[in-house]
Write a structure and sequence with these properties.
The chain is of the alpha/beta class. It has a single domain (about 20-120), classed as Cytidine Deaminase, domain 2. The protein has 3 helices and 7 strands. The chain has helices at about 20-40, 65-70, 85-95; strands at about 45-50, 55-60, 80, 85, 100-105, 105, 115-120. A 5-stranded mixed β-sheet has the order 2-1-3-5-7, sandwiched between helices. It has a two-stranded parallel ribbon with strand order 4-6. About 20% of the residues are buried.
Amino acid sequence: MPAARANITLPSYSDGTRSDVDDVMDINDKAVRYYRDMLLSMGGSSKARLLDDSDGVVAEVPVRELVETLKGAKQTRAVVFDGIITQRILDIASELSMHSVIGTKMGTITKQPAGVEIWTRSDLSP
């Protein structure tokens, strides 16, 4: 599970400017809010949205078709879906070098792939 980012205090330079790390955190916080809002808006829909590098929705499919759809989705950067994150979905995400998998909750995961951020509804709660 990714570490919570909300409680991290980052240094500022003595002249009052922010560090480059702060800018990265702002970008990540925006992405997390975007994913949270998308996940919450999809509640009860049993849908999945595949996102590209600019976080634009490239496809929306029923969750029951997610595994098959992901297998052919070479340009997908992230997936947000109203369902349980499974080992199979994470394995496919890793094979496709996806950045993020966002789902309602975590299933039984035996091997968490490196390089894939995993977020659940409870991780994204304010």
